[in-house]
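Bench log. Compound arrived from synthesis this morning; before running ITC I wanted a structural hypothesis for how pyridoxal-5'-phosphate sits in the protein. Inputs:
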Amino acid sequence: MNEEHIVPTNSQANPSRQHFASDNYAGMCGEAMHWLAEANSSGPQPAYGEDVWTQKVSDRMRELFDTDCDVYFVFNGTAANSLALASLCQSYHSVICSPVAHIETDECGGPEFFSNGSKLLIAESESQAARQGKLTPEGIEQLVTKRSDIHYPKPKVVSITQATELGTVYGLDELKAVTAKAREHRLRIHMDGARFANAVASLGCHPGDITWKVGVDVLCFGGTKNGLPVGEAVVFFDRKLSEDFAYRVKQAGQLASKMRFISAPWLGLLEEGVWLRNAGRANAMAQRLHAGVQDIAGVDCTHAPQANSVFLHMSEATAKALRDKGWRFYQFIAGGGCRFMCSWDTSEADVDLLLADLRSNCSA
Ligand SMILES: *Cc1c(COP(=O)(O)O)cnc(C)c1O
């Protein structure tokens, strides 16, 4: 194969106005590519996760979290969330989440399907935290105490997205308040961590501080959006809950027979802190974009970014002008606003080009 084809694309070498649509538009990082190639060149290995690479990465994950957790690998985040939630619920239970939660808005009913009907209960709230995509203790309290009769699906799980779908991050105190409320009502705690790395990079904490130490039972730890080719890890901190999880994964068609090609690239992220470096870079680019729009009349930021996305309000004419120039960004997330998502390989030049186009369209 031509060398050019195995080098990950880099936006500086290959500028792309599509870049801000999502962090899964980015390629894989060199470190992930390195371990993928190592796994490939090291000869045959047992299938279905019995290989040395999967063992190694799982051990590395236990070191990272500094606790004895169970680790599974699946192809995508929808499966990770759906199967994790199914393992926490019976079909007559319910899962409390925010109205903008990915499990509610973007998983095509996967959590309900894989749990055989567990209902998602949406915590409505007018609070500032809720407007920023977060669950609050009051929102949970309200749903849990509203009904206790046999006709209502019994609340069993609280699902927290960290970082949130709106690019905000639960601070340690906010998180503790939510998890304490969940514990008070004997609810299990699931964390959708599609952008967990961005949250840890933003908070500068230990990954254990915002997971098992505050009572998170299971974390869906995203790799795809942080430089992996494919794959998310499902990390059970309460190991009793992972009993039979392997069968769920298999039944759902999520058990990779050549598992090593999903697990080995994780070594690239976990060795030498690359997961935090990648996420930190994406976060920093969101800060750069946010800072850059402050003096552009006609562009308003809904809230300051804490992770790697920036939500902007602009006229439909400006949004169209950007699209006509080739920019790609989502406009359907959380009731309007244009979402600009930075990724591990977003460069200063990418951000500056976007700012320049925004500026020229707003003054036109
Ligand atoms: C991207 C994402 C997921 C996973 O989505 P898949 O496309 O199924 O991999 C899950 N949760 C959140 C918050 C996400 O942004």
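What the model suggests: Strands lie at 70-74, 93-97, 119-122, 154-161, 188-193, 218-222, 232-236, 300-301, 309-313, 338-341. Residues 1-14 have pLDDT under 50 and may be disordered.
ITC booked for Thursday regardless.
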